[in-house]
User: Which sequence fits this backbone?
Protein backbone atom coordinates (compact mmCIF):
# COMPACT_ATOMS: atom_id res chain seq x y z
CA UNK A 1 0.00 0.00 0.00
CA UNK A 2 1.62 3.30 -1.05
CA UNK A 3 2.14 6.09 1.46
CA UNK A 4 0.74 9.47 0.40
CA UNK A 5 0.87 11.38 3.67
CA UNK A 6 2.74 11.31 6.98
CA UNK A 7 1.34 13.12 10.03
CA UNK A 8 3.56 14.83 12.60
CA UNK A 9 1.48 15.03 15.75
CA UNK A 10 1.29 17.57 18.55
CA UNK A 11 4.22 18.75 20.72
CA UNK A 12 6.74 18.67 17.92
CA UNK A 13 7.18 22.35 18.84
CA UNK A 14 9.32 23.86 21.65
CA UNK A 15 6.26 25.35 23.41
CA UNK A 16 2.61 25.80 22.53
CA UNK A 17 2.26 29.02 20.58
CA UNK A 18 5.61 28.52 18.87
CA UNK A 19 4.43 27.19 15.54
CA UNK A 20 7.65 25.56 14.44
CA UNK A 21 9.71 22.39 14.79
CA UNK A 22 11.68 21.89 17.98
CA UNK A 23 15.27 22.08 16.67
CA UNK A 24 16.46 19.59 19.29
CA UNK A 25 14.47 16.80 17.65
CA UNK A 26 14.02 18.25 14.15
CA UNK A 27 17.47 19.60 13.24
CA UNK A 28 16.84 19.97 9.49
CA UNK A 29 13.11 20.01 8.60
CA UNK A 30 13.85 21.49 5.16
CA UNK A 31 15.91 18.47 4.18
CA UNK A 32 13.27 16.15 5.66
CA UNK A 33 10.49 17.67 3.57
CA UNK A 34 12.63 17.59 0.42
CA UNK A 35 13.44 13.92 0.95
CA UNK A 36 9.77 13.06 1.47
CA UNK A 37 8.80 15.07 -1.59
CA UNK A 38 11.18 13.00 -3.71
CA UNK A 39 9.35 9.93 -2.39
CA UNK A 40 6.03 11.57 -3.35
CA UNK A 41 4.99 11.77 0.29
CA UNK A 42 3.23 14.85 1.64
CA UNK A 43 3.69 16.00 5.22
CA UNK A 44 0.94 17.16 7.58
CA UNK A 45 1.72 18.92 10.87
CA UNK A 46 -0.46 19.37 13.93
CA UNK A 47 -1.37 22.95 14.81
CA UNK A 48 -2.81 23.98 18.16
CA UNK A 49 -4.38 27.42 18.80
CA UNK A 50 -2.99 27.53 22.35
CA UNK A 51 -0.25 29.97 23.33
CA UNK A 52 1.91 29.15 26.33
CA UNK A 53 2.66 32.14 28.55
CA UNK A 54 6.35 31.17 28.34
CA UNK A 55 6.36 31.08 24.53
CA UNK A 56 8.33 33.51 22.40
CA UNK A 57 5.12 34.91 20.87
CA UNK A 58 2.97 35.37 23.97
CA UNK A 59 3.89 38.93 24.97
CA UNK A 60 3.59 40.25 21.42
CA UNK A 61 0.22 38.59 20.90
CA UNK A 62 -0.99 39.84 24.28
CA UNK A 63 0.09 43.40 23.48
CA UNK A 64 -1.72 43.45 20.13
CA UNK A 65 -4.94 41.87 21.40
CA UNK A 66 -4.52 38.62 19.51
CA UNK A 67 -5.50 36.43 22.48
CA UNK A 68 -8.87 35.71 24.03
CA UNK A 69 -9.66 37.72 27.14
CA UNK A 70 -11.37 36.85 30.41
CA UNK A 71 -13.67 38.99 32.54
CA UNK A 72 -12.45 37.54 35.81
CA UNK A 73 -9.81 35.30 37.27
CA UNK A 74 -6.44 34.29 35.86
CA UNK A 75 -6.11 34.59 32.10
CA UNK A 76 -5.48 30.88 31.51
CA UNK A 77 -7.86 29.07 29.20
CA UNK A 78 -6.26 25.63 29.41
CA UNK A 79 -3.53 24.21 31.62
CA UNK A 80 -2.55 21.16 29.57
CA UNK A 81 1.28 21.02 29.50
CA UNK A 82 1.53 24.68 30.41
CA UNK A 83 -0.59 27.74 31.18
CA UNK A 84 -2.03 28.64 27.81
CA UNK A 85 -4.38 31.15 26.20
CA UNK A 86 -6.07 30.67 22.83
CA UNK A 87 -5.38 32.98 19.95
CA UNK A 88 -8.50 34.90 18.97
CA UNK A 89 -9.51 33.36 15.65
CA UNK A 90 -12.30 35.93 15.25
CA UNK A 91 -9.71 38.70 15.00
CA UNK A 92 -8.52 39.07 11.36
CA UNK A 93 -5.16 40.47 12.50
CA UNK A 94 -4.64 37.50 14.83
CA UNK A 95 -5.43 35.17 11.92
CA UNK A 96 -2.81 36.91 9.80
CA UNK A 97 -0.27 36.72 12.62
CA UNK A 98 -0.66 32.98 13.16
CA UNK A 99 -0.62 32.25 9.44
CA UNK A 100 2.60 34.20 8.95
CA UNK A 101 4.24 32.04 11.62
CA UNK A 102 2.93 28.86 10.03
CA UNK A 103 3.88 30.09 6.57
CA UNK A 104 7.45 30.84 7.63
CA UNK A 105 8.04 27.66 9.61
CA UNK A 106 5.96 25.10 7.69
CA UNK A 107 4.45 26.27 4.43
CA UNK A 108 7.65 27.77 3.04
CA UNK A 109 9.29 24.38 3.54
CA UNK A 110 6.68 22.66 1.37
CA UNK A 111 4.13 21.58 4.00
CA UNK A 112 0.73 22.24 2.44
CA UNK A 113 -1.75 20.39 4.66
CA UNK A 114 -2.49 21.01 8.34
CA UNK A 115 -4.18 19.23 11.22
CA UNK A 116 -5.96 22.02 13.10
CA UNK A 117 -6.58 20.39 16.46
CA UNK A 118 -8.21 21.82 19.61
CA UNK A 119 -10.66 23.67 17.38
CA UNK A 120 -13.61 23.79 19.79
CA UNK A 121 -11.69 25.32 21.65
CA UNK A 122 -11.30 23.05 24.68
CA UNK A 123 -11.27 24.96 27.96
CA UNK A 124 -10.10 23.74 31.36
CA UNK A 125 -13.11 25.50 32.92
CA UNK A 126 -16.23 25.88 30.79
CA UNK A 127 -17.43 29.23 32.14
CA UNK A 128 -18.47 30.49 28.74
CA UNK A 129 -19.65 33.83 30.10
CA UNK A 130 -16.07 34.57 31.16
CA UNK A 131 -14.41 34.54 27.73
CA UNK A 132 -14.29 37.51 25.36
CA UNK A 133 -13.42 37.54 21.68
CA UNK A 134 -12.77 40.27 19.14
CA UNK A 135 -16.30 39.84 17.76
CA UNK A 136 -18.08 39.49 21.10
CA UNK A 137 -18.61 37.28 24.11
CA UNK A 138 -18.25 33.54 23.99
CA UNK A 139 -21.95 33.21 24.76
CA UNK A 140 -22.74 35.29 21.68
CA UNK A 141 -20.30 34.06 19.06
CA UNK A 142 -18.22 31.26 20.60
CA UNK A 143 -19.50 28.61 18.19
CA UNK A 144 -17.89 30.29 15.19
CA UNK A 145 -14.39 29.76 16.59
CA UNK A 146 -13.70 26.54 14.63
CA UNK A 147 -14.95 28.18 11.45
CA UNK A 148 -12.57 31.10 11.82
CA UNK A 149 -9.76 28.75 12.87
CA UNK A 150 -10.19 26.95 9.54
CA UNK A 151 -10.46 30.32 7.81
CA UNK A 152 -7.06 31.32 9.22
CA UNK A 153 -5.28 28.72 7.15
CA UNK A 154 -7.62 28.73 4.18
CA UNK A 155 -7.10 32.45 3.66
CA UNK A 156 -3.35 32.12 3.91
CA UNK A 157 -3.10 29.10 1.66
CA UNK A 158 -5.41 30.68 -0.90
CA UNK A 159 -3.37 33.89 -0.91
CA UNK A 160 -0.28 31.77 -1.54
CA UNK A 161 -1.97 30.35 -4.64
CA UNK A 162 -2.75 26.88 -3.32
CA UNK A 163 -5.67 24.96 -4.81
CA UNK A 164 -7.60 21.99 -3.39
CA UNK A 165 -7.14 23.13 0.22
CA UNK A 166 -8.12 20.52 2.80
CA UNK A 167 -7.21 20.72 6.50
CA UNK A 168 -8.24 18.35 9.27
CA UNK A 169 -10.24 19.87 12.16
CA UNK A 170 -11.74 18.49 15.36
CA UNK A 171 -14.75 20.80 15.31
CA UNK A 172 -16.81 22.83 12.85
CA UNK A 173 -19.71 25.24 12.54
CA UNK A 174 -22.04 26.42 9.81
CA UNK A 175 -19.94 27.62 6.91
CA UNK A 176 -16.81 25.65 7.81
CA UNK A 177 -17.09 23.76 4.52
CA UNK A 178 -16.20 26.98 2.69
CA UNK A 179 -12.75 26.89 4.26
CA UNK A 180 -11.54 23.41 3.37
CA UNK A 181 -12.56 21.82 6.67
CA UNK A 182 -12.23 18.06 6.89
CA UNK A 183 -13.93 17.41 10.23
CA UNK A 184 -13.68 14.41 12.51
CA UNK A 185 -15.86 13.74 15.49
CA UNK A 186 -13.20 14.11 18.16
CA UNK A 187 -11.59 11.92 20.79
CA UNK A 188 -14.45 9.49 21.26
CA UNK A 189 -14.76 6.31 23.30
CA UNK A 190 -13.94 2.85 21.97
CA UNK A 191 -17.35 1.27 22.45
CA UNK A 192 -20.40 0.03 20.55
CA UNK A 193 -22.61 2.91 21.79
CA UNK A 194 -19.97 5.33 20.58
CA UNK A 195 -19.96 3.71 17.13
CA UNK A 196 -23.74 4.02 17.00
CA UNK A 197 -23.48 7.71 17.91
CA UNK A 198 -21.09 8.30 15.01
CA UNK A 199 -23.74 7.24 12.51
CA UNK A 200 -26.08 9.89 13.85
CA UNK A 201 -23.32 12.51 14.00
CA UNK A 202 -22.29 11.82 10.41
CA UNK A 203 -25.84 12.13 9.11
CA UNK A 204 -26.27 15.44 10.90
CA UNK A 205 -23.00 16.76 9.53
CA UNK A 206 -24.08 15.82 6.03
CA UNK A 207 -27.45 17.49 6.48
CA UNK A 208 -25.59 20.60 7.68
CA UNK A 209 -23.79 20.72 4.35
CA UNK A 210 -20.38 19.55 5.57
CA UNK A 211 -19.42 16.65 3.28
CA UNK A 212 -15.87 15.91 4.46
CA UNK A 213 -16.34 14.17 7.78
CA UNK A 214 -14.95 11.12 9.52
CA UNK A 215 -14.30 9.41 12.87
CA UNK A 216 -11.47 7.77 14.75
CA UNK A 217 -11.83 4.18 13.55
CA UNK A 218 -12.10 2.02 16.65
CA UNK A 219 -12.65 5.07 18.81
CA UNK A 220 -9.90 7.05 20.49
CA UNK A 221 -10.06 6.44 24.25
CA UNK A 222 -9.39 2.87 25.29
CA UNK A 223 -9.47 -0.33 23.29
CA UNK A 224 -7.09 -3.20 23.97
CA UNK A 225 -6.03 -5.15 20.86
CA UNK A 226 -5.74 -8.25 23.08
CA UNK A 227 -9.45 -8.05 23.89
CA UNK A 228 -11.68 -10.08 21.55
CA UNK A 229 -14.62 -7.70 22.00
CA UNK A 230 -12.50 -4.74 20.95
CA UNK A 231 -11.16 -6.66 17.96
CA UNK A 232 -14.69 -7.19 16.67
CA UNK A 233 -15.56 -3.53 17.26
CA UNK A 234 -12.40 -2.52 15.44
CA UNK A 235 -13.23 -4.66 12.40
CA UNK A 236 -16.83 -3.44 12.20
CA UNK A 237 -15.70 0.17 12.55
CA UNK A 238 -13.13 -0.35 9.80
CA UNK A 239 -15.82 -1.79 7.52
CA UNK A 240 -17.95 1.29 8.05
CA UNK A 241 -14.96 3.63 7.80
CA UNK A 242 -14.23 2.34 4.31
CA UNK A 243 -17.42 4.05 3.13
CA UNK A 244 -16.85 7.35 4.93
CA UNK A 245 -15.50 10.30 2.90
CA UNK A 246 -12.18 9.87 4.74
CA UNK A 247 -10.89 6.64 6.24
CA UNK A 248 -9.02 7.51 9.41
CA UNK A 249 -7.50 5.35 12.14
CA UNK A 250 -6.48 7.16 15.32
CA UNK A 251 -6.41 5.95 18.89
CA UNK A 252 -4.88 5.93 22.35
CA UNK A 253 -4.69 2.19 22.91
CA UNK A 254 -4.14 -0.12 25.83
CA UNK A 255 -1.79 -1.23 27.21
CA UNK A 256 0.10 2.04 27.47
CA UNK A 257 3.80 1.96 26.70
CA UNK A 258 6.35 4.52 27.76
CA UNK A 259 7.70 6.64 24.95
CA UNK A 260 11.27 7.69 25.65
CA UNK A 261 12.16 11.35 25.22
CA UNK A 262 10.13 14.52 25.23
CA UNK A 263 9.53 17.58 23.13
CA UNK A 264 7.37 20.58 23.90
CA UNK A 265 5.96 18.97 27.04
CA UNK A 266 6.34 16.20 29.58
CA UNK A 267 7.29 12.63 28.70
CA UNK A 268 4.36 10.84 27.07
CA UNK A 269 2.95 7.44 27.97
CA UNK A 270 0.68 7.13 25.00
CA UNK A 271 0.76 5.49 21.61
CA UNK A 272 -1.25 7.20 18.91
CA UNK A 273 -1.73 5.70 15.49
CA UNK A 274 -2.64 7.77 12.46
CA UNK A 275 -3.67 6.53 9.06
CA UNK A 276 -5.45 8.90 6.70
CA UNK A 277 -6.68 7.85 3.30
CA UNK A 278 -7.75 10.75 1.09
CA UNK A 279 -10.11 8.94 -1.26
CA UNK A 280 -10.43 9.98 -4.89
CA UNK A 281 -9.66 13.66 -4.36
CA UNK A 282 -6.51 13.72 -6.42
CA UNK A 283 -4.88 15.99 -3.84
CA UNK A 284 -1.56 14.21 -3.63
Assistant:
Amino acid sequence: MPIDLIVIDFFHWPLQGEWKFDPTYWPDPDAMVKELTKMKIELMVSIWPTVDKRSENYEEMLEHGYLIRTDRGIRTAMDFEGDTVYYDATNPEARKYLWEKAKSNYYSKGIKVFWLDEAEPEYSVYDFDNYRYYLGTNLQIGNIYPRDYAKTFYEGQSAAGQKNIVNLLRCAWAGSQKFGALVWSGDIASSWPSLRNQLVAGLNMGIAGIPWWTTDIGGFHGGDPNNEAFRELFVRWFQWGAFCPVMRLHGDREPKQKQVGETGGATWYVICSHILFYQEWGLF
About this structure: Confidence is low (pLDDT under 50) at residues 266-274, 277-284.
